[in-house]
Amino acid sequence: MRTIAAALLCLAALGGVKSASAEVSSISFARQYGIAFMPLAIMEAKGFVQKNVVAAGLPEPSVDWKTFGGGNVTNEALLSGNLDFAAGGIPAYAILWDKTAGTPYEVTGLAAMGAVPAYLLTRNPNVKSIRDFGPEDRIAVPAVKASTQAIVLQMAAEKEFGVGNHDRLDPLTISRSHPDALASISTPNGDINSHFSAPPFQEISLRDPAIHSVLTYDDVFGGPYTSVVLYTTKKFREENPVTTKAIVEAMKETMAFIKENKREAAQLYLDITREAMTVDELVEVMNHPSAHFESVPQNVFKMISFLNRIGTIKRQASSWKDLYDESLHELPGS
Question: Which residues does the chain have with pLDDT short of 50?
Fold first, then answer.
């Protein structure tokens, strides 16, 4: 939280918004680990960003693709000017949306990036539900108190233990990227025995018969949850309106490609990420009933309302639309 505030003060000191005579010639994106971020991997592999920027009448840009372990790092990079477009979980995005309100660096969601199922895993045989976790257990999440997994765990805790107990399991959580958490939970005597994971890391973990699932997103939301959003700042949008619109079109093309070409999309994703899955295994995950690669935000308002109610964010939204660009408002989101 403090790093975001400090970054905002530094940016304000540098002079605020400047009028640009030309749009950017280079564009930077950041994604995180897991299949939820597949659309950006496909955009990279297929060159959809360059294609749509050129179609919009601008010179072909250079595109830089970064991968970060958590939303806090992504947000800091966005505010520091080292990033143009960020993809992150709804909680990290909502925290930034709250903190930057009314500033040139206020963020807006440009696209939902689909919904994928996620499981809370453990190798503790005595844990059958979240009620069974004890003080010796350690649960890896991408970012304590800020990542999607950390907040969904809070929602589950409130549901299990009652209002006011949402943070009951927080002392057990520890920040780890999904690849690092996968390595830790795979070690029988490791310091981390549980992991609120994401595909494909959870599928890899479940190959070990000693690891089992305790909770899923579906258990908390009652259906698919759109966990990732693509966003940028008001400053970038105002200085680069044609580029921003081209990125929105590139994302639309990407989502359509994934839906129509799952096997090719799976292969392209694995070629870039080098994750330890076969194409068949990845396609099986993509065909899960709760996996949806489309631009319609689902159960986002439920998450935002929870964050506001527990005080993580102060800004109150009247609907999911408050966090997304007007071009998405006609979608049947929630």
Answer: 1-2, 12-21
